[in-house]
């Protein structure tokens, strides 16, 4: 059984002449432990699709099953539970809280799961070390460069230790060396814990780390041979 199963999903913005079909009938099945890249030109709907997969946004129509259970996009509780327990998301714009420190940002999502504070900090430190940014832990996000913010947002997602990791341009602000580092960490998590990973990217180097590359164009798959 696929861990993620998307059936004929649409996301339509606006009406009549101003209608935009950001996602225009997409189906995809992703198996547990797969690492998938989604590529395609700017504006083709990659972030919109990933946001739906991450239960951050609801589709206009279509069905979505996670572990065989249909996602009910009308139930906010259901969506936040999925985001809390199953899926962690690396945002294209980092989505960090500027007034908090790096460490505070990273442990914030863990707060909703309870457990001792010390455990949360230990988990955060593990991934800060892995991404070689432990020296940033007490800095305010305001003091960080774009690339540093990107790595903090990745550390925050990894600290949640979810089964599925969705990453929207996780290396967009990074140089080649740091891009490779991020992909190596993601691949290691995939190998060690059988994590399922979907990465939206413009970068062929990032795609080269993935088991499968899917191409999107105008809200659809560009090459149907890609889709299982
Ligand atoms: N909230 C919105 N309201 C109206 N149109 C939107 C909205 N969000 C996205 N769109 C449109 O949907 C289309 C797909 O946008 P999306 O952000 O998914 O593209 P993308 O493939 O991620 O692009 P990029 O590579 O630049 O990040 C675009 O035409 C965009 O203008
Ligand atoms: Mg995008």
TrEMBL record:
Q: Which UniProt keywords apply?
A: ATP-binding, Nucleotide-binding, Transport
Which terms does the record give in the GO molecular function aspect? Answer: ATP binding; ATP hydrolysis activity; transmembrane transporter activity
Sequence ranges assigned to domain ABC transporter in this UniProt record? 4-227
Record InterPro entries: AAA+_ATPase, ABC_transporter-like_ATP-bd, ABC_transporter-like_CS, MacB-like_ATP-bd, P-loop_NTPase
Nucleotide-binding listed as a keyword: yes
Q: Which domain of life is it from?
A: Bacteria
Q: Does the keyword ATP-binding apply?
A: yes
Can you list the GO cellular component terms from the UniProt entry?
membrane protein complex
CDD domains the UniProt entry points to: ABC_MJ0796_LolCDE_FtsE (cd03255)
Which family is it part of? Answer: Belongs to the ABC transporter superfamily.
Q: Any idea what this protein is called?
A: Putative ABC transport system ATP-binding protein
**Species for this entry:** Clostridium uliginosum
């Amino acid at each position: 059984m696929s861990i993620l199963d998307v059936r004929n999903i649409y996301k339509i913005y606006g009406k009549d002449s101003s209608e935009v079909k950001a996602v225009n009938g997409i189906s995809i099945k992703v198996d547990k432990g797969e690492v998938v890249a989604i590529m395609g030109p700017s504006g083709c709907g990659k972030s919109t699709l990933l946001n739906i997969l991450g239960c951050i946004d609801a589709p206009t129509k279509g069905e979505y099953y996670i572990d065989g259970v249909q996602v009910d996009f009308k139930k906010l509780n259901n969506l936040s539970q999925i985001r809390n327990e199953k899926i962690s998301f690396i945002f294209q714009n980092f989505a960090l809280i500027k007034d908090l420190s790096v460490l505070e940002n990273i442990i914030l999502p863990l707060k909703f799961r309870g457990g001792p504070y010390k455990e949360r900090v230990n988990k955060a430190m593990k991934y800060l070390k892995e991404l070689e940014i432990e020296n940033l832990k007490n800095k305010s996000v305001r003091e960080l460069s774009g690339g540093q913010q990107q790595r903090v947002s990745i550390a925050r997602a990894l600290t949640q230790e979810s089964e599925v990791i969705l990453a929207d341009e996780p290396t967009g602000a990074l140089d080649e060396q740091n891009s490779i580092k991020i992909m190596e960490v993601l691949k290691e998590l995939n190998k060690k814990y059988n994590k399922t990973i979907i990465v939206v990217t413009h970068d062929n180097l990032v795609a080269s780390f993935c088991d499968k590359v899917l191409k999107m164009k105008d809200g659809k798959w560009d090459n149907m041979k890609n889709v299982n």
